Amino acid sequence: MIPNTLLALIDKLAADGRIAAEEALDVRRAIFPDGAVSRGEAEAVFHLNDRVGRDDPAWNACFVEAICDHLTLAHDLPGHVTDEGAAWLESRISHDGVVERFTELELLLTLLERAESCPARLHELARDWVSRAVLAGKGYEGRDTSLVPGQIGESELAMIRRALYAAAGAGDVAVTREEAEWLFDLDTSTEGFAHVAGWRDLFVSAVMNHLFAAGPSALLERSEMVRRASWLQRRETGGVGRYLQRALHGLGAGRSEFLSDVTFTGASNDHVERRQVEATLAEALTMPEAAWLVTRIRADGRRTANEQALLDAVKAARGEDLLKSA
User: Fold this and answer.
1) Which of 95, 151, 152, 89 is closest to 126 using CA atoms?
2) Those residues with Cβ within 8 angstroms of residue 254's Cβ, 6 or more apart along the chain or in another chain
3) Fewer beta carbons within 10 angstroms: which end of the chain, N or C?
4) Region of 192 on the Ramachandran plot (φ > 0 left; ψ -120 to 50 alpha; else beta)
């Protein structure tokens, strides 16, 4: 529920349909003093954003910071966006079918960049809205009349890159199968337009990343990160002395808890060696990977210039034998 004081402030600030820099400062003073942004305050910020159109950069920054803080800090797992928080955000930014250029999609991309982990639904939503902006020229990029729907310029390329390599992305720095499929869809849907040169470089390097780079460590998967965060939040007080006491006594429930806790340490000690093995195996193009690549390129019955550049790069790297028929 939005506090009455904030409702009055919203009505006052939204009267002229815009938020100036000094007015954005008034919003900051209203919601940040206690160091936490509640759900009611977050709703108020969204409500105000819905009512203004000519946004000042100061308001854009305030909006993004407030909602990011709410979603990553206003619960028991700091840094992680909860499933409930993701569902709330999706309902707020998708309710009218339009994502604003300087606020809502910027919020989504920034959240993926800042959070330690986000539910998959937010990764999918970001890719969906970036695709809409690129293909239809609406929503996030819709205010710039110089942009051509379907043409990837510097602005669109930056959005694609941010959605692909956000820190909280599904594969972290490794490109997942879903992300690679997304890039193929963008490429085939925009073939024939005069794209910025960097688009081909990003497409080729990102798909090769998917084919040849080791995927994210199991220790970095969202479920594991959330489990560790929960464990850290429930640790008993008493410092190192208490921890060593539990270790030395090793009896009853204390021993069980201690052994459970040090599972994290054991996993951390051997994960580096495991990742080295994974990286070595990933350097080779496997038969399933080659089959996926060929099938994907042949899916629409034609080959784009970027797909040919990718195929040439993969063959030159390690896939000549497996891709002879491609």
Assistant:
1) 89
2) 246
3) N
4) left
> What is the per-residue pLDDT across 151-183, written as a single tens digit (0 to 9) for each?
999 989 999 999 998 865 544 578 999 999 999
pLDDT (0 to 100) of residue 41: 93
Work out the end-to-end distance of the chain between its first and last CA atoms, rounded to an integer number of angstroms: 58
DSSP state of 196: -
DSSP state of 95: T
85-140 pLDDT tens trace: 999 999 988 766 566 556 888 899 999 999 989 999 999 999 998 998 888 865 55
CB 109 within 8 A of CB 167: no
Nearest Cα neighbor of 141 from 165, 106, 191 is: 106
User: At which residue do the structure tokens 């609406």 appear?
Assistant: 138
Residues of the chain under the 70 pLDDT cut: 53-55, 95-102, 137-147, 167-172, 214-283, 319-322, 324-326
Buried/exposed code over 86-121 (b: 16+ C-beta within 10 A; e: otherwise) = bebbbebbeeeeebbbbbbbbbbbbbbebbbbbbee
Identify the CA nearest to 311 among candidates 301, 160, 324.
324
Question: Rounded to 10 degrees, what is the CA torsion of 135, 139, 144, 147?
Answer: 0
Give one word for 22, left, alpha or beta, with left for phi > 0 and alpha for psi -120 to 50: alpha
CB burial readout 218-254, b (16+ within 10 A) else e: eebbbeebbeebeeeeeeeeeeeeeeeebeeeeeeee
Number of neighbouring beta carbons within 10 Å of residue 155: 17
Among 122, 68, 129, 121, smallest CA distance to 98 is for 129
So where are the chain's domains? 4-190, 235-282
Instruction: Enumerate the β-bridge partners of residue 23.
Output: none
Q: Transcribe 208-219 into DSSP letters.
A: HHHHHS----GG
